[in-house]
Design brief:
Order of helices and strands of chain A: HEHEHEHEHEH
Strand content of chain A: 5-15%
Number of helices of chain A: 6
Order of helices and strands of chain B: HHHHH
Structural class of chain A: alpha/beta
Distance between the termini of chain B: 49 Å
Structural class of chain B: mainly alpha
Shape of chain B: elongated
Radius of gyration of chain B: 18 Å
Shape of chain A: elongated
Number of strands of chain A: 5
Largest interface: A-B, 36 and 37 residues
Oligomer: heterodimer
Distance between the termini of chain A: 63 Å
Radius of gyration of chain A: 20 Å
Number of helices of chain B: 5
Largest sheet of chain A: 5 strands, parallel
Strand content of chain B: under 5%
Strand order of the largest sheet of chain A: 1-5-4-2-3
């Protein structure tokens, strides 16, 4: 009985520490996961898009990073090489496409900048993948995601 | 010749005590470090949990805070030899859960990131299962050994 009482106290102590961690971190997680910025989608939402819609991945990372690995059917679109890269995107874009942009990770800003520019160019459905390549690499590289034909 | 040499028995007992302390130090340090790393970046740990596709978002958020806290508390308890047996029992249960989650994900063909120390990258399932199995053996050893060779240093409130 003493053993289980101690286990119970350890669990209660852990619950108190967990509550402290949540209170201590100002950018605590929302109950639906990390807070999303406007125009961002989670990997789970991207999965749902891929099931029901035509997804066109846009890789906003460097050419070297793109060459090392990218989402199926992704177009490499760098802000610095917009004039040369953007026509390549228009060749594969279809009006029903949902564009999902990613860069290295949650901290990089290239995907947000590219997404804003794509929206400004008049493309209707453009989202940024929260967590970027770091969050999605394992899933995107295993070939289970359908590439836009 | 009658009975065992008491010196040999003492040596064996001290050897066992040392082995338990070493096992507890490794077990406690690994979980304390793992818990602190996860607690540092809850969003990254959330994404790792999401990859297992076991928990809905609200449950995953609870686990994102509770699992590191439990690892920190029990890891520290094992290290500090406070309620070591109870903490080893909790850690053993946690490790059994991790092993089941990894095995299920492997069987489902999911490419998850471990989330063990907050690192990213594709999981090497055999390696992760092996690591967790070794840690589980350590937890069992500490749990069983602490019952026969150590006394609790503080009483329950």
């Amino acid at each position: 009985m003493k053993l289980f009482r101690q286990v119970g106290i350890l669990i209660l102590l852990a619950a108190a520490v967990a509550a402290g961690l949540r209170a201590w971190q100002p950018a605590g997680l929302d109950w639906n996961g990390p807070a999303l910025r406007p125009g961002e989608v989670t990997l789970a939402q991207a999965r749902a898009f891929a099931r029901n819609r035509l997804v066109l991945w846009v890789d906003a990372r460097s050419a070297d990073a793109f060459a090392a690995g990218h989402a199926p059917g992704a177009v490499n679109l760098k802000l610095a090489a917009w004039d040369t890269d953007f026509p390549g995107l228009l060749k594969v874009w279809q009006p029903e496409s949902v564009i999902l942009v990613y860069c290295d990770d949650q901290a990089c800003g290239a995907s947000t900048a590219v997404a804003e520019r794509l929206r400004a160019a008049g493309l209707p459905e453009v989202y940024v993948l929260s967590g970027g390549w770091a969050a999605a690499q394992a899933e995107l590289e295993n070939g289970k995601w359908r590439a836009q034909p | 010749m009658s009975g065992a040499n008491p010196l040999t028995g003492d040596r064996r007992r001290w050897g066992m005590l040392l082995a338990i302390r070493l096992a507890a130090a490794v077990l406690g340090a690994v979980f304390l470090l793992a818990g602190l790393t996860k607690a540092e970046d809850p969003a990254a740990f959330f994404r790792d949990l999401e990859g297992f596709r076991i928990f809905p978002a609200p449950a995953a958020v609870v686990l994102v805070y509770f699992v590191p806290a439990l690892e920190i508390v029990t890891g520290a308890a094992v290290l500090a030899a406070r309620w070591r047996r109870s903490a080893a029992l909790v850690l053993g249960t946690l490790l059994a859960c991790y092993l089941i989650a990894l095995a299920v994900s492997w069987a489902r063909g999911l490419d998850v990131t471990c989330g063990c120390f907050g690192e990213t990258g594709t999981a090497n399932y055999p390696l992760l299962l092996g690591q967790d199995a070794i840690l589980l053996l350590l937890a069992v050893f500490v749990f069983r050994g602490s019952a026969s060779t150590t006394q609790p240093r503080i009483s329950t409130p």
